[in-house]
Design a protein that fits this description.
By secondary structure, the chain is an alpha/beta fold. The protein has 2 domains: 2-60, DNA polymerase, domain 1; 65-350, Aldolase class I (TIM Barrel), CATH 3.20.20.70. The protein contains 12 helices and 14 strands. The protein has helices at residues 9-18, 24-35, 49-58, 130-147, 168-179, 199-208, 223-229, 232-235, 238-252, 270-280, 306-318, 339-350; strands spanning 2-3, 59-60, 65-71, 77-82, 88-96, 99-103, 107-108, 126-127, 153-158, 191-195, 213-217, 257-262, 286-291, 323-325. The strands form 3 sheets. A 10-stranded mixed sheet has the order 3-4-5-6-9-10-11-12-13-14, covered by helices on one side. The chain has a two-stranded parallel ribbon with strand order 1-2. Helix 1 (9-18) crosses helix 2 (24-35), helix 6 runs parallel beside helix 9 and helix 10 runs parallel beside helix 11 (306-318). The longest helix is centred in the middle third of the chain and has 18 residues, at 130-147. It is globular. The structure holds S-adenosyl-L-homocysteine (SAH). S-adenosyl-L-homocysteine (SAH) is lined by residues 112, 114, 116-117, 159, 163, 194-196, 217, 219, 259, 261, 290, 292-293, 295, 336-337.
């Protein structure tokens, strides 16, 4: 069975043509599932009964299920979503003044092995299919609909578990469905992909000429430290990452966001700030400083104190680099990276 939620428009058109249908059939299906939110083929009243039978035989409209749901005092919702084969992934809804943003996972587990990140502990189990990423968004949209406040997902960040550029084709299909005017019609500028720096796919992504946002997880301003914190740096050194960033900027005219996690005593000194300024000088990008979410898995890493975070921000600003501090959500509900999944699995083990 082919899941309709995983088909970007061109693929759907092709499949419809193979069925002897006109291309507009694909638009009609998109409109039923994304605009009218039909959950079964029987609702699709302007499609002939006989073709609906064909659709039912070969296609499905399956969503993953909600395994656990946590709601924070600030309205943040964190779902642990169960996939068809029992694997579970997390997604988080964050409410901003400008809209509803969802952080989606792109893989079950992750192979990047960053030394501070819980998502990598067990390695990658598998890639998520486009319909499994769409599924996370659609489940959140359903919850928002139930709230009856007229809200829906307006922004998407691919910053949950997994490395999106290690699942490139599926993530791109997912983005195309989100962005398609007859799909969820989420503007490209409201979509952000975050990568730890898989250089060849930064080039590939630049060549797509999308108007989406790209975030690069830097976390360290020199190769020695970055290779210690992030295994990926041993394959792609910082000069290669920065070369790719410059190419991306040239091709897309978009600036990247550099993500910089502040770890006390490790990457948060004045020297680090100065190295960071030097590293990114001449690019258009700006720095997003991320307070570290501590976990008992890595007792060696601590979040930098508020004073140090602000001092770091000051150094950057004085050095001519634009920087912001990442707003935090859901601190009362394990909303931090990989932590709900880790907790549920721990509890299940104890039973
Ligand atoms: N693999 C991609 C996207 C997923 S991780 C990437 O590396 O960008 C999303 C972001 O969360 C990355 O910047 C990652 O380094 C960061 N992160 C990982 N563990 C964290 C933690 N405990 N606290 C705060 N940020 C964390």
């Amino acid at each position: 069975m082919i899941n309709l939620y995983g088909l970007e428009m061109n693929k759907l058109i092709k499949l419809m043509e193979e069925e002897g249908q006109k291309p507009y059939r694909a638009t009609q299906l998109y409109s039923w599932i994304y605009e009218k939110k039909a959950e079964s083929f029987d609702e699709m009243s302007d499609i002939s009964k006989s073709f609906r039978e064909v659709l039912k035989e070969k296609y499905c409209l399956d969503l993953p299920t909600v395994y656990t749901k946590q709601v924070s005092k600030d309205g943040t919702i964190k779902l642990l979503v169960e996939l068809k084969d029992g694997y579970k992934v997390e997604c988080v809804l964050m409410r901003y003044s400008y809209g509803c943003a969802v952080c989606v996972s792109s893989q079950v587990g992750c192979n990047m092995g960053c030394s501070f990140c819980s998502s990598g502990i067990l390695g990658k189990q598998r890639n998520l299919a486009p319909e499994e990423m769409m599924g996370q968004i659609l489940l959140i949209n359903k919850l928002l609909k139930e709230e009856n406040k007229g809200q829906h997902v307006t922004h998407v960040v691919v910053m949950g578990t997994g490395e999106p550029f290690d699942n490139y084709d599926n993530v791109l299909d997912f983005i195309r469905i989100l962005n398609h005017p007859k799909g969820l019609a989420i503007g490209a500028r409201h979509i952000t992909i975050s990568t730890c720096g898989i250089v060849e796919n930064i080039y590939r992504y630049a060549d797509e000429h999308l108007q989406t946002n790209l975030a690069i997880s830097l976390h360290a301003p020199n190769d020695e430290l970055r290779s210690r914190l992030m295994k990926i740096n041993r394959a792609y050194h910082l000069d290669k990452v920065m070369e790719a960033v410059r190419y991306y900027e040239k091709e897309t005219k978009r600036r990247v966001t550099y993500e910089y996690l502040l770890l006390e005593g490790i990457n948060d000194t004045k020297e680090h700030a100065q190295q960071l300024i030097k590293l990114i000088k001449g690019t258009m990008g700006y720095v997003n400083l991320i307070p570290y979410n501590e976990t008992n898995k890595f007792p060696e890493f601590h979040r930098s104190s508020g004073n140090r975070v602000h001092a770091f921000l000051d150094y950057l600003m004085k050095g001519g680099v634009t920087a912001t501090i990442r707003k935090e959500f859901g601190s009362d509900i394990d909303a931090a990276c990989g932590q709900l999944k880790a907790k549920v699995e721990e509890e299940n083990r104890d039973e």
